[in-house]
Amino acid sequence: MSASEILDGLWYLAALSNELKPGAMLRRVLFGGPVVFGRTKAGEVFALRDVCPHRAAPLSAGRLCEIGGESAVECPYHAWAFRTTDGKCAAIPALHSEEKRDPSTIATKRYGLHEANGLVWIYHGEGMPETPPPDIGLAAGCRPKTVTIVEAKGPFDEAVIGLVDPAHTPTVHKQWWWREGAPRRDKTKNYEPTPLGMKIPAHAPSSNTRIYKFIGGAPTTEIEFRLPSLRLEHIRSGKRRILGLTTMSPTEPGTTRIVHVIFWDFALLDLIMPIAQSMADDFLAQDGAILTLQNDNLSRIDHRPLYFGDADEPAKWYLKLKRAFAQRKENGGFTNPLSPAELRWRT
Known about the structure:
The chain is α+β, with helices and mostly antiparallel strands. The protein has helices spanning 156-164, 169-172, 211-215, 267-271, 273-298, 313-326; strands spanning 10-16, 25-30, 33-39, 45-49, 63-67, 70-74, 81-83, 89-91, 113-116, 119-124, 146-153, 186-194, 197-203, 220-226, 230-237, 240-250, 255-264, 341-346. It folds into two domains: 3-124, Rieske [2Fe-2S] iron-sulphur domain (Rieske Iron-sulfur Protein, 3-layer Sandwich); 146-346, Alpha-Beta Complex (Naphthalene 1,2-dioxygenase Alpha Subunit, Chain A, domain 1). Helices cover 18% and strands 34% of the residues. A hairpin with a 2-residue loop joins strand 15 (230-237) and strand 16. The longest helix is centred in the C-terminal third of the chain and has 26 residues, at 273-298. It starts with 9 loop residues before the first strand and ends with a strand.
């Protein structure tokens, strides 16, 4: 995984809130390196580089403790301890009592985190965050109803392009409740630029997609993509609301963690939650499978993508957005390079 593949200065989904238990720690590889996540006894989430600066032991194999009234992570090898608030070393037990050296001059990297709506976001970059944490437009008490996680192989960009690619849907996703057997139809969609991406404004959903009929009424859907790798689909019908959020985070080199969560606010769906979970699992598994198949070829050959027709324009726009954000410092800031556009395809 090269540094150029992954944009810094942005937020990626790191964990689900319920994965981080008070007093416990979780090791996860992100951006190609080890990170230890945890939640203090006071309920605060934290993330540190999961490498002790002393002898490289994983801090996640140690324990949470308190030193001087502050929460810290104790290394399992020599019990060096690092504060969860700033990553600075708070204790080196082997130092002689008359030693004058200051342990706090040693530190492991601390990552910025933001927790909201049952999701924990991590900032990838140095210094103060350049961009605000993702706001997905939900009230503070909303939590995911279903969660699906897939580890997909292949280049990160290819995985993210799947979030904006409309043409693969009728081929890859074949479920009776989606559009299996439904004929393709001409579609025309309007796109608008947003601060960090693009969106299709609220519109009537495709009539050949059966799932929308279950919602009832006259639903509308708004589909948005945001850098680095977020897709939000807001479905509204009267007072009913559903949000489908898909995010991608780079983990090991050549591997992407895809997380799809669904929020809703009407009781009827609560009654069929296990069915909804199974449907979401099947849907995302199909995306993971095609990415793995694609990667088998990409890992063996030098292939340049071929983009053809309006359905491939969003993929080109993603790469254009990414280039513009990567060059923001040279250009004096990020300006969305996209313009409003109308695209036509069959799906």
